Amino acid sequence: MAKFLADVTVTLHILALLFIGLGGFLAWRWPKVVFVHIFFAVWGVLVNVTPIPCPLTALENYFRHQQGLGDLPGGFNAYYFYDTLFPRSFLPVIAVFALTLLVLSYVGAYQRWRHRDHAHAHAAHLG
């Protein structure tokens, strides 16, 4: 059971990371998602630049201990991504890419909200 729960935790962690990277684009369709996205984005930055532990990493470590394994060596990102999916030396490029995606998603969301607000105002003016 601990192996299954650890795997579920890994899946949730990956989904959370995808949401941090791409969640701003969901706000194009569902504007209120932006508030949840901001929380996740701030949390993601905090756990990566401060000693605040990520609760999902702690949960996975708990399930790993239940299986007789130790903590994730180096943390979640280091264990699953660095030098596995991409070389650690690519981190600066990935950070710039992620920041660019974030800015584009928020600019796009703002443009869509502004366009929608103008359309609503125009419709109200005509009605």
TrEMBL record:
It holds the Pfam family DUF2784. Keywords: Membrane, Transmembrane, Transmembrane helix. It comes from the Bacteria. The keyword Transmembrane helix applies. InterPro entries: DUF2784. The chain crosses the membrane at residues 6-26, 33-52, 89-109. This is DUF2784 domain-containing protein. It comes from Amycolatopsis australiensis.
